[in-house]
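Our consortium's second objective concerns turning raw sequence data into structural hypotheses that experimental partners can test. To show how far this objective has progressed, the report includes one record in full. It was chosen at random from the queue rather than selected for favorable results. The single chain below, 53 residues long, was entered without modification.
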Amino acid sequence: MMNRLYALIDLMKSETIDGERVIDKPAFRDRLLRVQGKVLANKLMLLDYFPAL
């Protein structure tokens, strides 16, 4: 799951809209932070169930 998140971040750094990187646009960056928060929360929840991971 983290690999997909990192791939999304790399994609947002490389793609542009109207000559501006997607990651530099506040609306997209805000959405990315929400997704990142959900991914990290999910990871922590899995660690609670499977502490050996």
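The partners drew two points from this record. Residues 11 and 46 are 26 Å apart (CA to CA). The mean pLDDT is 92. Both points have been shared with the crystallography group to help prioritize constructs.
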